[in-house]
Amino acid sequence: MTTPRTAEILPLNSAVSGDAIVTMDDAAIAQLARTDRRKALSLIVAKYRRPLYRHAFHMLHNSEEAYEICQEVFLRAHKETRLFDVDFHVKGWLYRVTANLSLKHIRSRRVRALFALKRPEPVKEVTVPVVDAIAGQVRAEVAEALQELPPRFRQLVILRYFDDLSYKEIADAMKMPIGSVMSGLSRARDRLKKLLKTMELDP
Amino acid sequence: MNCPEKPTIDLLLDGELSPDGATATRSHLETCADCRAYHDEGAELLAMFRSQNPNVTIEEARFWRAFDAELALRVARGETPFWRRSFVIPFPVAAAASALVLVLMVLAIQDRMQMGHLTVRATHLEAALKDLESRSFFAVALPPQDATDVAGGGAMAMPTATPLMYAQPVMMRSAARPMATPQPQIRFIDSTVVQPGDLY
Predict the structure, then answer these.
(1) Which residue in chain B has the smallest CA separation from A112?
(2) For every residue of chain B, which 3-state class applies, written as one string?
(3) Which among A71, A72, A182 is the nearest to B7, CB-wise?
(4) Which chain B residues contact residue A70 at CB under 8 A?
């Protein structure tokens, strides 16, 4: 992917100060954590909240659920004592927790629908500002096709094409052999192509 | 897609090849129509994912401030992640589900036991009847050959007193009666005669 991995930094004294997108790398943040763990944690949150939220949102297509999962991930991060250890891969860990929680939520969604304990959860109209921005980046037919993919395939597609993780990063994050990542992505792409074709023929 | 280079094209599309590998693969594309078509299809798909990097709007900034505030609150409260109800199958449901499983198991076992019981009754009817005979003064209706027991009357068809009476108890003439018949029969009130083996 050619999209740059560093995002622009907003000036700290601007109207949106405090929401500067963090470009410090994780090693530097871990270094900072030795003296100021709270600050390091808040940097981690600021750096990853949007990507992790986006991941959850693309998996679930529901802004409230994505929000809850995102909160949950950072809550666990605060409790994770190894988070700033030297060999600890923070990014991989964060994505793994988010991916697993999202997948688990999709499955429990089906169980809850079975027991009809909560009102059924249709795809909601997005009203949250961040979701407008995220959803606006994705074409409607792609979003629809994503929801049609089996959850495991959906996860791989999101990790690679929305989260911009390399094959190796995906393999490390999800604790999968890299061969499985490659074959999984290949199959997911094929499925996606088919879905988009059928949607084209029958909108 | 017949060309064996398909996985390499995937790698190229995903930017996973080294610069040399990419160059080599691109030159392959120039010669292989199959791969070219596959590559173009893939590139088209990936183009659909490409997003512009939007600026963070003020609305979004507010949203994230609220997010941070809520997170800080939860951390301060020392909230334990696991017990968020929206992620856990509600306890009553889990309890009901396990209760159901137990009930089904019990029913299944019980069913089996009853079936076994019936089976026992059918196959051991003969022995059971013999046992009954020897222990009581009731006898199962005997086949007509045992004419010595004329007065017993049990071998004769009796008028249907009630539909519930299937085997007519008979007074034994004498306690010691030769069990001449190898196959005790059961004579029902409506005169049907049944062998033990028929019952099941």
Answers:
(1) B89
(2) CCCCCHHHHHHHHCCCCCHHHHHHHHHHHHHCHHHHHHHHHHHHHHHHHCCCCCCCCHHHHHHHHHHHHHHHHHHHHCCCHHHCHHHCCCHHHHHHHHHHHHHHHHHHHHHHHHHHHHHHHHHCHHHHHHHHHHHCCEECCCCCCCHHHHHHCCCCCCCCCCCCCCECCEECCCCCCCCCCCCCCEEECCCCEECHHHHC
(3) A182
(4) 67
CA distances from B165 to A82, A112, B158, B159 (A): 80, 54, 11, 11
Checking if the pLDDT of B172 tops 50, the result is: no
User: Using the beta-carbon criterion (under 8 Å), do A42 and B57 form an inter-chain contact?
Assistant: no
Q: Which residues of A touch B52 (CB under 8 A)?
A: 137
Which pair of tokens denotes residue A44? Answer: 């981690």
**pLDDT for A119:** 58
Residues of chain A with pLDDT under 70: 1-21, 116-127, 203
Q: Which pLDDT belongs to residue A2?
A: 46
- Which CA distances in Å does A66 have to A120, A132, B41, B190, B197? 17, 14, 32, 76, 68
The Cα of A72 is separated from the nearest Cα of chain B by a number of Å equal to: 6
Which string of b and e fits B160-195 if b means at least 16 CB within 10 Å?
A: eeeeeeebbebebeeeeeeeeeeebbbbbbeeeeee
Q: Is A104–B14 a contact, with Cβ atoms under 8 angstroms apart?
A: no
Full-model pTM:
0.64
- Side chain identity, residue B194: V
**Which two three-digit tokens encode residue A172?**
């490390």
Q: What is the pLDDT of residue A159?
A: 96
| Interface ipTM > 0.90 | no
A67 touches chain B (CB under 8 A): yes
Yes or no: say if A52 and A134 are a contact pair by the CB < 8 Å rule: no
